[in-house]
Amino acid sequence: MLLFSPAKVNLSLAVSGLREDGYHGLDSVVTLVSLGDDVTLERAAETTLEVVSDTVDLQSMPQDCERNLAVRAVRLIEQSVGRVLPTAIRIVKRIPLGGGLGGGSSNAATVLKGMNELWHLGLPLDTLCALGAQLGSDVPLFLQDGTVRMCGRGEQVERLNLSGAPSLCLVLANDGTHCPTPQVYRGWDVRHPGVENFSYKGLTDGDVFCDNLRLSLQKGKVTDVATWVFNDLEAPCFDQFPGVRGTAEALQSAGCDGVLLCGSGGTVCGMVASAEVGERVLAHPALAHCWRASVQTLPDGVMAAHGPLTPIVMVRIHVGQPCPSASVK
Ligand code: C5P
Hints:
The chain is an alpha+beta fold. The protein has helices at residues 69-81, 103-118, 125-135, 181-191, 206-219, 222-228, 234-240, 242-253, 275-282, 302-306; strands at residues 2-18, 24-43, 48-52, 87-92, 148-151, 156-159, 169-174, 230-231, 258-261, 268-272, 291-296, 325-328.
């Protein structure tokens, strides 16, 4: 079974405060994009994991396969149904690791979905989402097959229903800076001392904001969308990681209509009017030091409608030493 495991971009990300459980309350609109990994699942004698890439540096991947989110997804589903489901997993990695694009969470969601079919488990979406939330805050959004609003710590997801909305063209750029998510959130705490009004429903003005963003996405005019996008983690990330701020400035000077940090960084997303403009941005000298890709947002329902997808990816260069074939067993 071959499955496409897409990256995500948070088009808005409001942080409402530090919660008692150590997580932060979020209100975020998240969309899936055409950059993604290929995940192959096959019934086997034992569960194994192989990860390969010719564009992504795999050196920071945990060598212990049981720590990988894809294998943890297998273990969780085995525990849930009460039997062993030995599965060989092979991942062709195109999503940079630790870049705020949700690659590991996406792989975990794809394995949950795929295992459900491969082993004819018949688990409903709600159950898969509950299992996903145990693996990470970002996992449930990848099970929705469309643009979502996510609240709580990220586990509460609601489809925005953008069927028929045009795709947006985006350029993703990453200078190789590793931005650990907890460190970026701690930077937000430093800037907002004493803010603990955790709200599982998101911010009070979140509904209005989300409606405006949703309407602009429905129309698909990039300059309108660009007025609504924001990320509360941008300032704490830029403060701590000047290289990421530099990537954002480079995308701006390369002619993007809007520039936005992806998740907790360090990938930065530039919004452009067309794929042709995206090509020009990719070729801009200010971005020559970065890994970059020209991508499109995925229309709602496209994963279910088309099954495995061939991602439309353009990757010009990559940062660091790629590991052409890393295998973890
Ligand atoms: O849920 P996940 O394991 O992906 O989160 C990684 C880390 O990111 C958490 O340990 C926490 O430090 C931070 N986080 C947060 N609030 C969220 C999501 C993540 O503080 N809503």
